[in-house]
Design brief:
The chain is mostly beta strands. It has a single domain, classed as SpoA-like (Surface presentation of antigens (SPOA), Roll).
Amino acid sequence: MSVLEGIPIDLSIVLGSTNLPIRQVLKMGRGAMIPLDCGHNDPTLVYVNNQLVAKGKVLVEGEHMSLEITEVVQRVR
């Protein structure tokens, strides 16, 4: 496994998404709220190199956030 340790990957944790016009983004200030297309109980998506690999839920404990993996997504061939 030591051969793999130096290989970089792009890891993305996606809570949700939205589409906003640029004019709205430019008007935003500190503390602005952006509504997302997901609910409180919807899974958080985990992408590796832009491919969905897992789903999970965000855990918050004091100042620390973590992600609990609840499902590993099977690759479609």
